[in-house]
């Protein structure tokens, strides 16, 4: 959940920034408590061949900024990490404007009566090709490999950049909302799954990526250290839940104020969703049980 103070404005909204030889970034004007300064769309590749990662919201100014950055280049594919509405809606108009296929994560739209603290799903997202874990988008001299990372959403993908014959430009991972340097991801049941999220964190920890480019917030230059810390933080929250329930049975609404004391109350709805995801996983493992709205530990577990 959000943890870092937003940087002072102005933000580089609509500007094309060169991050490294094969990576450029354009920031959408949708900054908020849950998107930091906004969704970062990445243009990966050369002036001749490129892939657009996370085209962002269907905002006309953002789409025009992307088309300006693309120029006369050939867009090989438009790839989304997942289908929250701050990530994928611009895919369709960008595909229409460039003729590029939409390739990447699967379509997903969850209906739920629960109040949502994350962006709702993009119901209109329609990929031309869904990539499975390990499948690639290939260009001249470089590739993007899909890395399945469910947890934040069940259809979440990261994309790993590999450049032929060059270690210097390889090792970049585009992490969407799975790992961000400014915040931990919100895991919202029923689609968000804490066990999947933790497994996906370990999957990335076992890799040797040089740098992470998330959809929100600054680049992560110490990937394995950050992922290790995020994994430990989630385990710490799990232990905290068990400890509080051992004191007395509690509903989620009573856990959150204790667990997130000192955190802005506006963020408590997001915290309650992640606490719920932890409780569902603990219930699966036979460590807690629910009775109505209250949760309690299982004796002799």
TrEMBL record:
Q: Does the keyword Acetylation apply?
A: no
Pfam families from the entry?
Lactamase_B, WHD_BLACT
At the top level, the lineage of the source is Bacteria
Residues of the Metallo-beta-lactamase domain: 38-216
Residue runs in coiled coils = none
SMART domains in the cross-refs: Lactamase_B
Q: Which UniProt keywords apply?
A: Hydrolase
**CDD domains reported for this sequence:** metallo-hydrolase-like_MBL-fold (cd16278)
Q: Which GO terms describe its molecular function?
A: hydrolase activity
Under PANTHER family, the record lists: ENDORIBONUCLEASE LACTB2
Listed name of the protein: MBL fold metallo-hydrolase
* Source organism per UniProt: Alteraurantiacibacter aestuarii
């Amino acid at each position: 959940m959000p943890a870092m103070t937003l940087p002072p404005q102005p933000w580089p909204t609509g500007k094309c920034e060169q991050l490294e030889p094969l990576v450029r970034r354009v920031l959408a004007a949708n900054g908020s408590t849950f998107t930091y300064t906004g969704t970062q769309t990445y243009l990966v590749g050369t002036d001749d061949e490129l892939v657009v990662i996370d085209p962002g919201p269907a905002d006309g100014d953002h789409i025009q900024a992307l088309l300006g950055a693309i120029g006369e280049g050939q867009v090989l594919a438009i790839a989304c990490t997942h289908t929250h509405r701050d990530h994928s809606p611009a895919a369709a108009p960008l595909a229409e404007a460039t003729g590029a296929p939409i390739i990447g994560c699967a379509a997903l739209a969850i209906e739920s009566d629960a109040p949502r603290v994350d962006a709702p799903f993009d119901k209109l997202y329609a990929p031309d090709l869904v990539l499975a874990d390990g499948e690639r988008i290939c260009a001249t001299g470089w590739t993007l490999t899909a890395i399945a990372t469910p947890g934040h959403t069940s259809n979440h993908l990261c994309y790993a950049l590999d450049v032929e014959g060059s270690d210097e430009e390889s090792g970049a991972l585009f992490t969407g909302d799975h790992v961000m340097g400014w915040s931990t991801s919100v895991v919202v049941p029923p689609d968000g799954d804490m066990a999947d999220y933790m497994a996906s964190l370990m999957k990335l920890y076992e890799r040797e990526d040089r740098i992470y480019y998330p959809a929100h917030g600054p680049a992560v230059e110490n990937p394995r250290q950050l992922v290790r810390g995020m994994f430990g933080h989630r385990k710490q929250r799990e232990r905290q839940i068990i400890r509080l329930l051992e004191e007395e049975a509690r509903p989620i609404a009573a856990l959150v104020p204790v667990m997130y004391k000192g955190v802005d109350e506006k963020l408590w709805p997001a915290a309650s969703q992640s606490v719920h995801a932890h409780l569902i996983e603990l219930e699966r493992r036979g460590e807690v049980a629910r009775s109505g709205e209250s949760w309690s530990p299982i004796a002799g577990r």
